[in-house]
Automatic annotation (TrEMBL):
Residues 39-312 form the NADP-dependent oxidoreductase domain. Residues 1-21 form the signal peptide. SUPFAM superfamilies: NAD(P)-linked oxidoreductase. The gene is LOC113514035. This is Aldo-keto reductase AKR2E4-like. InterPro entries: AKR (IPR020471), AKR2E (IPR044488), Aldo/ket_reductase_CS (IPR018170), NAD(P)_OxRdtase_dom_sf (IPR036812), NADP_OxRdtase_dom (IPR023210). Keywords: Signal.
Length: 338
C-alpha cells in the first residue's frame, strides 16, 4: 500500500472514532501494574421493581456484548451468579473469530459467588466460570460479597482472608491476571490488606449520584485501589426507582440543561461525572443505541460548577442494600432502613 493509502486509513479511523462520539475509554493503571479500560459494560439483568430477579431467557446479553465491542467497549463485567457468563463468552469468542479483537484487547471481569468462600473452593469455582466463558484466563476475579453463604442459605462465616488466599492462588496459577473484591467496606479492606499483605487491585461498589461514597473513594485513592462503580445510574430512571428514592430523575431540569449544553443525554452526564471522580462505571444495557450512547463520554468534560451541582445529589442512598443479609457478621453496609 502506498503511503497516502496508509494516511487515508489512519484519518478514516480517526473520523470513525469521532463519529462514535468519544466512544473509546482510555485505560487506567492498576496497583499491580496492569491496565483496566475506564468504562465497561454490565451484564446483570437486574431486579424488577418488586425486587424479584429478571430471568435470563434469550440471547440478549450475547447480542449486547457484541454491540458493545463494535461500539468500542473493551471491558465487560459479569459474575457466576448473573447466569450470563456463557453469553459473554460466546460474544467475545465470536468477535475474536471475526478478527475484530484479540483476547488481549479485552478486559473481562467475573466474580466468586458467596457459596464458594472456602479457600479450596476458589480455584475450582473460577475454573467453572472459565469453562462457561470458554476463556483460558480472566482479567479480574472478584470476591462478589464479604458475606459467605451455605448452600441452604445459612450464613458461612469463613474468614475473608482465607477466601482471599484462594484468589491469590488463582492469580499465581495464571487463571486470573488481577484480583480484587466487591461490596467490602473500608474496615474490611483495611483488615484484609493488613492480614494478608496483598492489597486488592480493584474494589467494585455501588456508586451513583445518590451514593457517591467520598470517604471510601478517598481511602481507595490513598491505597491505589481502583474503584469500579456498579449501578451507575442509581435511581435516574422512573421505571427502576423506588418510590422513596431521592432525586434526580432523568428529566431533572438542571441536568437536562447540562446535557443540552454538551449535546449529550442526562445518562451520559451521570457517567461522565463518575469518570471525573476517577471511578470506572460499568453501565448495563441490552439496547444497542444505549450501549453506544453510554460509552460516548470521553469527548467532553464538566466544569467545576457542574461537578458541584452533581455532588449535591449525594444522599448516601443505596439502591442495593441487600437487607436479607443484614444480620450476617460481615454485612458491609450501614445498618439503617431506607
Ligand atoms: N458487584 C455487585 O454486587 C454488583 C451489583 C449490581 C450490579 N453490578 C454490575 O454493575 C452493572 C450495572 O449495574 P445495574 O445493572 O444494577 O444498573 P445500571 O447500569 O445503573 O442501570 C441499568 C438500567 O439502565 C437502563 N439504561 C442503561 N443505559 C441507559 C440509557 N442511556 N438511557 C436510558 N436507560 C438506560 C437499562 O435498560 P436497558 O438494558 O433496557 O437498555 C437498565 O434498565 C451490572 O450489570 C453488573 O454488571 C455489580
Ligand atoms: C498505582 O500503582 C501503579 C502500579 O504500581 C503505579 O504505576 C501508579 O503510579 C500508582 N498510582 C498511585 C497514585 O500511586
Ligand atoms: C444448613 O446447613 C448447615 C451445614 O450443613 C447446617 O449446619 C444448618 O443447620 C443448615 N441450616 C438450615 C436452616 O437448614
Ligand atoms: C449531537 O449528538 C448527536 C448524537 O451523538 C449527533 O448525531 C449530532 O451530530 C450532534 N450534533 C452536533 C451539533 O454536534
Amino acid at each position: 500500500m502506498a503511503l497516502h493509502s496508509y494516511i487515508f486509513v489512519f484519518v478514516s479511523l480517526l473520523l470513525l472514532n469521532e463519529a462514535r462520539g468519544g466512544g473509546v475509554a482510555p485505560s487506567i493503571r492498576l496497583n499491580d501494574g496492569r491496565e483496566i479500560p475506564s468504562l465497561g459494560l454490565g451484564t446483570w439483568l437486574g431486579l424488577k421493581r418488586d425486587g424479584s430477579r429478571v430471568e435470563v431467557q434469550d440471547d440478549s446479553v450475547e447480542k449486547a456484548v457484541e454491540y458493545a465491542i463494535d461500539a468500542g467497549y473493551r471491558h465487560i463485567d459479569t459474575a457466576s451468579i448473573y447466569n450470563t457468563e456463557d453469553q459473554v463468552g460466546r460474544a467475545i469468542n465470536n468477535k475474536i473469530k471475526e478478527g475484530v479483537i484479540k483476547r488481549e484487547d479485552i478486559f473481562v471481569t467475573t466474580k466468586l459467588w458467596n457459596t464458594r468462600h472456602a479457600k479450596e473452593d476458589v480455584v475450582p469455582a473460577l475454573r467453572e466460570s472459565l469453562k462457561r466463558l470458554n476463556l483460558d484466563y480472566i482479567d479480574l476475579y472478584l470476591i462478589h460479597w464479604p458475606v459467605g453463604l451455605l448452600a441452604n442459605g445459612s450464613f458461612d462465616t469463613t474468614d475473608n482472608a482465607q477466601t482471599w488466599q484462594g484468589l491469590v492462588e488463582a492469580r499465581d496459577q495464571g487463571l486470573a491476571r488481577s484480583i480484587g473484591v466487591s461490596n467490602f467496606n473500608e474496615q474490611q479492606l483495611d483488615s484484609l490488606a493488613a492480614r494478608t499483605h496483598v492489597t486488592p487491585a480493584v474494589l467494585q461498589v455501588e456508586i451513583n449520584l445518590n451514593l457517591q461514597q467520598p470517604s471510601l473513594l478517598e481511602y481507595c485513592r490513598r491505597q491505589n485501589i481502583t474503584v469500579t462503580g456498579y449501578t451507575p445510574f442509581g435511581s435516574l430512571f422512573p421505571s427502576k426507582a423506588q418510590d422513596d428514592a431521592p432525586p434526580p430523575r432523568v428529566d431533572d431540569p438542571a441536568l437536562v440543561n447540562i446535557a443540552n449544553k454538551y449535546n449529550k443525554t442526562v445518562p451520559q452526564i451521570a457517567l461522565r461525572y463518575l469518570v471525573e471522580l476517577g471511578v470506572v462505571p460499568i453501565p448495563k444495557s441490552t439496547t444497542r443505541s444505549r450501549i453506544e450512547q453510554n460509552v460516548a463520554v470521553f469527548d467532553f468534560s464538566l466544569t467545576q460548577q457542574e461537578r458541584d451541582l452533581l455532588k449535591s445529589y449525594d444522599r448516601g442512598y443505596r439502591t442495593i442494600p441487600v437487607l436479607h443479609w443484614i444480620d450476617h457478621p460481615y454485612y458491609p453496609f450501614e445498618k439503617r432502613q431506607h
